[in-house]
Amino acid sequence: MRKPRVLFLCPGSSSRSQIAEVFAQLVSKDRIEAFSAGAEAEALEPLAVRAMAEVGVDASGHSSTSMEQLRNESFDFVIAVCERAKEACPAWPRVDEPLLWSIEEPSAATGSEEDRLQAFRRVRDQIRQRTSLFLLANKLV
User: How far is CA 139 from CA 3, 4, 83, in A?
Assistant: First the structure.
């Protein structure tokens, strides 16, 4: 039986979509296939890696793919983590319209390293909650 496939999109794909991908895999206990993509493939932001490590998740070495690399793939759900990602989202077979989660861009945070890390923590916690609710609502866990 084929696992449901979920794609998380972000313009840069250096934090939000990758965090969502990691949590989706963990929460679903690998009952789904989760992917993250952006305009270009990027490694996970170091502060995102630190924020994930604080909740016991090793995301070091994780990276996304570009939307172009996944162009011929099919997904059951596509989730844009911000309006810019939704606007840039190409059409995907089987998906009428991507879902939109308006989540702040943590890498845009300014201030001390602790201030910026706090932004990543907020985003991590928000994404973990939304991912869990999404998976429950769609009976994917």
Answer: 12, 10, 26
Q: What is the distance in angstroms between the CA of the first residue and the CA of the last residue of the chain?
A: 15
> Is 89 assigned a catalytic role?
yes
Domains with residue ranges and CATH for the chain: 5-137 (3.40.50.2300)
Per residue in 83-129, pLDDT tens? 888 877 777 767 778 899 999 999 999 999 999 999 999 999 999 99
The answer to whether 92 is a known catalytic residue is no
Give the separation between CA 46 and CA 122, rounded to whole angstroms. Answer: 15
Selecting among 10, 27, 34, 85, the annotated active-site residue is: 10
